[in-house]
């Protein structure tokens, strides 16, 4: 209990200065740190041949994002398929098959890191460091860039006509990578190295086993693991060097390493609340959003922790009653595994230090719900962007309830905006439920390791994880098939770009409209009542849509097992 | 701020057959297609009816399918009925106003100056008609020649005659009103079917009704929610099959209909029509639904002082003497000078003097006196008594000139007294006898009773009020302070009004204003809500997007209330509709799956009788909630003077939390009732 409170406290304490730093680092106002970072940034701009000063409209900004991502996906796809022929492959790993490679490329380019392969066995050092880690830096930076673009367009009150665009993507992206992601990841990587996480380009160690009955030689793959683990935790990526992710001692060797990695899950999403409060000047609004997020977080964590403290029903007659330790590392125990499990789904991270598949049904359902909601902190940048999407919906209904034509921050929300906001919200049930239904309807497509309720949970979890850009999985699913790879690619792409770009578009459209000054008659967006409404909208839109599926999956499982 | 005071005409009882016929007509596919939520319910109805004989044939529970089908049909009928009811009420009101018109005869002026008798229906825009005393005006129009007193009670319900005159800001006349005196030449301003009332009727008629902007955006949202739940229900089939549960189609249709926002979807058209109807009941004729809606979002109200903040005329409130003149002498002279003065100001001076104890015998002094009426040239009036005394009252500088012309001097404190009276917001009227100025009468604007409270309410709602007046700044500021407006514009001209509107709009605010003159037209057009007086000129009525038949500038405040009510009603019922879903899940999901997995019975928190009664109860609740909420939809949710924060908190509590909780006991009760019969 105390360890969990301590980790929450660490995030809160370190998140505040980090938020202040991020606000300064991304500000367009000149500052002292500029001279330091320009040395790195200017050559990058020159090398990429981009103009970092021009102001982009939202359309140009969005197009720049899409162009860069299509390029990155194609490049990574090629690298994964051809890694057998490329250098930095000391273990002689062959190329991936086309659909797994495509899924992997899209998965990492969407900040999801869903893996239909096992990291250390199927990726070369080149693939891991060049393709994967590059994407692990660029994707959270893109989320953060878009968030800042939305914040300065939508949240900062400006007279109509003074704002010509939403910002410059290359400028925002480069600054985020150079000024925020790289320094922070370096610090965390060094801390993890000090705890014993490998940091090497050597080939796998071949260890002779003491008990040669089991296996004569064990191969322990190495690599620049610490740097990858740092950015996978910080950037809400989640894809680890090793298949079992942070449950394996090589990725997460000590109690301190576990604390560092757990705190790294939420530190940037939390710090962004502070940063956006400073950038936009809307402190009360961001405090309100923070309060809603924290409430959701505490509810989720409490449910998962108390669920995992209960015995595993499958072992009822076989062992001493006690907490559910199936699929968990004894060195972490249930609490720290449950805390990680709830945080990694709250933040769309997806790294694990325990197997979610083995959580008790209530715990498994809660982490699933975290991913439906996906704005309890959420991914770097995109968590808040997703929250804004619900805020827009709440503002629409809320404005009506105070007797005004729908407005968001004093700007009229009209049919065009509502059509796109609706589409972004509709996409989630359409993709997750639609693909799940198709998968279980097509004979042999599901490849589930369990029949019945748990099998359905596995399928639902996989698509939810893909759409939420989370990346964690209910293990045991035979997901490296062409069907799963391609279906997940759809979920990954729609789940990443629609909820990210629609708020950007809405911000761009609204910027050109009149702004009614806030007063006694306008919707108080920073009031507790409005935050309550927003929380209600999030719960109703997400949970009500998925409740029937949940009833057939984890809820049925829970009640048939007597919890 | 109730609207009952506005409802001057008694509500007519509605023919029920008309409402029912309208409800049934609403079932036509092209009508249902306008409302995606109800279209889904209608399709569900057809599916359930289709499944009924199949279920009977297969020996299954066909009665259940039939019951669900009938309940769904009722749901659709309640929705179309709500719309039909609102429509009938609107049309009944507008129709009554229009009734006389078809029977009207008109004396149409021909090019050669002769007149020919035609029916009012045949008049076209630009035609000229002659109307003499005792006749009804055949069409909406503008007086181009003549002046007359007119009884407008057919339109406004107010029987006191009003003066309408060519070439003034009061040249507009309405069809069906009666000319009481003189004769008029009127130019017809609208073709048949295009008059204000015709347009208003079109706004409430379902078939051609245009959706307003926020209604359109809300429809998008409701369509999205409907699609979400459609996806939820459709995908449930293979998922249930995967875990070995066969789902009943009738059950799934019931689940779908319970989840989609039928309450707000069913009442949305009625809410919009009822908003128009409330406006009409207040004698406000909106030219579009958008005008009524935008009124709710108004941030700044530009209000004419006269008629809105003050009663039309000024009244004498004080006799202020100059130098050592006794107060009674000022009173007596002012009294004598005003005895024959027919203006409201003159009469108010006589009234005040009488109140302050003037000797009634004094009036004999004025016997045989010659009355000097007020003229724009002299700007004074008074009497020449038979004893040779000349008594005058009038504008201070006019009196000063008159006295000087006779060789008199001004009292040394004359300017001071005048300045003090102006500062108090009153108009000074100087009183002189011969070449001596005796003192000053203060004519004060009488501020309407309750207006300060009204402005306080508006302020509480976050609306800024700006008083527009032709008065000088000193008088204006005093009245503004007493009435409690936020700001004022003194010595206002139409150009200044227009400039102010643009200024407010540039800072993002929505502005409403009132006007009647031709020179108000640009400002009325520029304002987001322009309210023209029906007595105003044709240009003003054309430029405005709302016309007040009562020609009461204070109506602007009612317009804002009606608009806010319209929007709040939509928001509150949307919230209610969505919050209802939670309870319905707890009814239908266990009913759907508990047979296959008895353990799921724990979700049945209401402990309902059986899956059949549970689903019937949920669908019945879902249907009955529509007629239960029709009064809310038609009357509108109250927007009593409250800030947005209070309104949000209150409506969330009532419609959000209430919507969450109410279905639990209601469905339980219905379940118990149904269990008695099954």
Automatic annotation (TrEMBL), chain A:
Topology class, membrane: Multi-pass membrane protein
Keywords assigned by UniProt, alphabetized: Cell membrane, Ion transport, Membrane, Potassium, Potassium transport, Transmembrane, Transmembrane helix, Transport
Gene Ontology MF: a single term: P-type potassium transmembrane transporter activity
Annotated Gene Ontology cellular component terms: plasma membrane
Subcellular location: Cell membrane
Keyword Phosphoprotein in record: no
Transmembrane segments: 6-23, 60-80, 130-155, 176-193, 256-278, 285-305, 371-402, 423-446, 483-512, 533-556
NCBIfam families (alphabetical): kdpA
Functional summary from the UniProt entry: Part of the high-affinity ATP-driven potassium transport (or Kdp) system, which catalyzes the hydrolysis of ATP coupled with the electrogenic transport of potassium into the cytoplasm. This subunit binds the extracellular potassium ions and delivers the ions to the membrane domain of KdpB through an intramembrane tunnel.
Membership in a protein family: Belongs to the KdpA family.
Oligomeric form and interacting partners: The system is composed of three essential subunits: KdpA, KdpB and KdpC.
PANTHER family per UniProt: POTASSIUM-TRANSPORTING ATPASE A CHAIN, POTASSIUM-TRANSPORTING ATPASE POTASSIUM-BINDING SUBUNIT
Name assigned to this protein: Potassium-transporting ATPase potassium-binding subunit
Taxonomic source organism: Vreelandella nigrificans
TrEMBL record, chain B:
Active site positions: 304
A Pfam family it matches: Hydrolase
Annotated ATP binding sites: 341, 345, 374-381, 393
UniProt GO cellular component terms: plasma membrane
Topology versus the membrane: Multi-pass membrane protein
Function per UniProt: Part of the high-affinity ATP-driven potassium transport (or Kdp) system, which catalyzes the hydrolysis of ATP coupled with the electrogenic transport of potassium into the cytoplasm. This subunit is responsible for energy coupling to the transport system and for the release of the potassium ions to the cytoplasm.
Family that this chain belongs to: Belongs to the cation transport ATPase (P-type) (TC 3.A.3) family. Type IA subfamily.
Name of this chain's protein: Potassium-transporting ATPase ATP-binding subunit
Record organism: Vreelandella nigrificans
Gene: kdpB
């Amino acid at each position: 209990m105390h360890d969990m409170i301590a980790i929450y406290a660490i995030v809160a304490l370190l998140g505040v200065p980090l938020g202040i730093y991020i606000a300064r680092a991304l500000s367009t106002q000149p500052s002292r740190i500029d001279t330091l970072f320009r040395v790195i940034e200017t050559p990058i701009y020159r090398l990429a041949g981009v103009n970092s000063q021009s102001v982009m409209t939202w359309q140009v900004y969005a197009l720049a994002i899409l162009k860069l991502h299509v390029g990155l996906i194609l490049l990574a796809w090629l690298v994964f398929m051809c890694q057998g022929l490329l250098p930095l492959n000391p273990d002689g790993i062959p190329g991936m098959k086309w659909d797994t490679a495509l899924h992997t490329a899209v998965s990492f380019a969407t900040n999801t890191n869903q893996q239909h392969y096992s990291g250390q066995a199927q990726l070369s050092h080149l693939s891991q460091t060049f393709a994967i880690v590059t994407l692990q830096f660029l994707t959270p930076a893109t989320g953060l860039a878009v968030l800042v673009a939305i914040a300065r367009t939508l949240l900062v009150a400006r007279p109509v006509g003074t704002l010509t665009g939403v910002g410059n993507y290359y400028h925002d992206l480069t600054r985020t990578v150079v000024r925020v992601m790289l320094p922070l990841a370096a610090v965390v990587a060094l801390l993890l190295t000090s705890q014993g996480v490998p940091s090497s380009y050597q080939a796998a160690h071949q260890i002779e086993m003491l008990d040669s009955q089991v296996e004569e030689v064990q191969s322990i793959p190495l690599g620049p693991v610490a740097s990858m683990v740092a950015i996978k935790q910080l950037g809400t990526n989640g894809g680890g060097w090793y298949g079992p992710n942070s449950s394996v001692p090589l990725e997460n060797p000590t109690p301190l390493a576990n604390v560092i990695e757990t705190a790294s899950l939420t530190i940037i999403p939390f710090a962004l609340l502070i940063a956006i409060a400073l950038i936009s000047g809307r402190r009360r609004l961001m405090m309100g959003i923070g309060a809603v997020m924290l409430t959701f977080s505490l509810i989720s964590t409490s449910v998962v922790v108390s669920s995992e403290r209960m015995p595993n029903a499958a072992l009822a007659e076989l062992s001493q009653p006690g907490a559910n330790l199936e699929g968990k590392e004894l060195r972490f125990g249930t609490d720290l595994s449950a805390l990680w499990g709830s945080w990694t789904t709250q933040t769309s991270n997806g790294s694990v230090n325990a197997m979610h598949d083995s959580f008790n049904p209530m715990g498994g359902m809660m982490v699933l719900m975290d991913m439906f909601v996906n704005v309890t902190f959420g991914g770097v940048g995109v968590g808040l962007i997703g929250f804004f999407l619900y805020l827009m919906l709440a503002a629409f209904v809320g404005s009506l309830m105070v007797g005004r034509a729908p407005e968001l921050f004093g700007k009229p929300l009209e049919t065009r905006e509502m059509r796109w906001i609706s589409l972004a919200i509709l996409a989630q049930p359409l993709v997750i439920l639609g693909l799940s239904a198709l998968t279980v309807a097509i004979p042999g497509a599901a490849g589930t390791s369990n029949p019945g309720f748990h099998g359905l949970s596995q399928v639902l979890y996989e698509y939810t994880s893909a759409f939420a850009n989370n990346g964690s999985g209910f293990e045991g699913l035979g997901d490296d098939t062409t069907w799963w790879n391609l279906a997940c690619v759809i979920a990954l792409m729609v789940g990443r770009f629609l909820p990210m770009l629609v708020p950007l578009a809405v911000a761009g459209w609204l910027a050109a409209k009149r702004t009614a000054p806030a007063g006694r008659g306008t919707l108080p967006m920073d009031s507790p009542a409005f935050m309550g409404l927003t929380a209600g909208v999030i719960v109703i839109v997400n949970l009500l849509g998925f409740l029937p599926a949940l009833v057939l999956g984890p809820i049925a499982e829970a009640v048939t097992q007597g919890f | 701020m109730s609207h009952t005071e506005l409802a001057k005409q008694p509500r007519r009882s509605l023919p029920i057959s008309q409402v029912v016929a309208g409800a049934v007509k609403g079932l036509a596919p092209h009508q249902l297609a306008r409302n995606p939520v109800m279209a889904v319910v209608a399709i569900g109805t057809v599916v359930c009816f289709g499944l009924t004989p199949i279920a009977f044939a297969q020996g299954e529970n066909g009665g259940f399918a039939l019951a669900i089908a009938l309940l769904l049909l009722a749901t659709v009928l309640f929705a179309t009925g709500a719309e039909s009811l609102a429509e009938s009420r609107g049309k009944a009101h507008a129709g009554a106003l229009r009734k006389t018109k078809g029977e009207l005869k008109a004396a149409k002026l021909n090019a050669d100056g002769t007149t020919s008798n035609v029916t009012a229906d045949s008049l076209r825009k630009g035609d000229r008609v002659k109307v003499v005393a005792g006749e009804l005006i055949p069409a909406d129009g503008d007086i181009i020649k003549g002046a007359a007193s007119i009884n407008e009670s057919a339109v406004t319900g107010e029987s006191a005659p009003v003066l309408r005159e060519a070439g003034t800001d009061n040249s507009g006349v309405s069809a069906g009103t009666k000319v009481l005196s003189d004769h008029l030449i009127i130019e017809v301003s609208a073709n048949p079917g295009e008059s204000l009332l015709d347009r208003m009727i079109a706004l409430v008629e379902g078939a051609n009704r245009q959706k307003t902007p926020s209604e359109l955006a809300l429809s998008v949202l409701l369509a999205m929610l409907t699609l979400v739940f459609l996806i939820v229900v459709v995908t449930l089939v293979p998922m249930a099959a995967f875990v070995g549960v066969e789902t009943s189609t009738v059950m799934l249709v019931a689940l779908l209909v319970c989840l989609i926002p039928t309450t707000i979807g069913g009442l949305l058209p009625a809410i919009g029509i009822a908003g128009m109807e409330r406006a009409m009941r207040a004698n406000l004729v909106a030219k579009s639904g958008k005008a009524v809606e935008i009124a709710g979002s108004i941030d700044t109200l530009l209000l004419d002082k006269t008629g809105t903040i003050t009663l039309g005329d000024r009244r004498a409130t004080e006799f202020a003497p100059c130098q050592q003149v006794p107060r009674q002498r000022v009173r007596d002279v002012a009294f004598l000078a005003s005895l024959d003065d027919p203006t409201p100001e003159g009469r108010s001076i006589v009234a005040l003097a009488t109140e302050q104890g003037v000797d009634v015998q004094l009036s004999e002094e004025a016997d045989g006196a010659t009355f000097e009426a007020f003229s724009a040239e002299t700007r004074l009036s008074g009497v020449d008594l038979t004893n040779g005394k000349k008594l005058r009252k009038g504008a201070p500088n006019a009196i000063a000139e008159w006295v000087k012309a006779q060789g008199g001097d001004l009292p040394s404190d004359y300017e001071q007294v005048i300045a003090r009276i102006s500062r108090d917001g009153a108009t000074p009227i100087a009183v002189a006898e011969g070449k001596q100025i005796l003192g000053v009468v203060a004519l004060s604007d009488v501020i309407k009773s309750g207006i300060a409270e009204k402005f306080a309410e508006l302020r509480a709602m976050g609306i800024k009020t700006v008083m527009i007046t032709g008065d000088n700044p000193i008088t204006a500021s005093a009245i503004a302070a007493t009435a409690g407006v936020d700001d004022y514009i003194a010595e206002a001209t139409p150009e200044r009004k227009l400039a102010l509107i643009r200024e407010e709009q540039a800072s993002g605010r929505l502005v409403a204003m009132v006007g009647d003159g031709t020179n108000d037209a640009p400002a009325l057009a520029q304002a987001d809500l322009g309210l023209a007086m029906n007595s105003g000129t044709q240009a003003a009525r054309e430029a405005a997007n709302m016309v007040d038949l009562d020609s009461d500038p204070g109506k602007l405040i009612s317009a804002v209330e009606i608009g806010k009510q319209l929007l709040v009603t939509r928001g509150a019922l949307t919230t209610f509709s969505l919050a209802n879903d939670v309870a319905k899940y707890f009814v239908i999901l266990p009913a759907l799956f508990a047979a296959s997995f008895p353990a799921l019975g724990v979700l049945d928190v209401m402990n309902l009788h059986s899956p059949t009664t549970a689903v019937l109860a949920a669908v019945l609740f879902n249907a009955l909630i529509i007629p239960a909420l029709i009064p809310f939809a038609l009357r509108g949710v109250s927007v009593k003077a409250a800030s947005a924060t209070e309104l949000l908190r209150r409506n969330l509590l009532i419609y959000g939390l209430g919507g969450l909780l109410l279905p639990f006991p209601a469905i339980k009760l219905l379940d118990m009732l149904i269990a008695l019969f099954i």
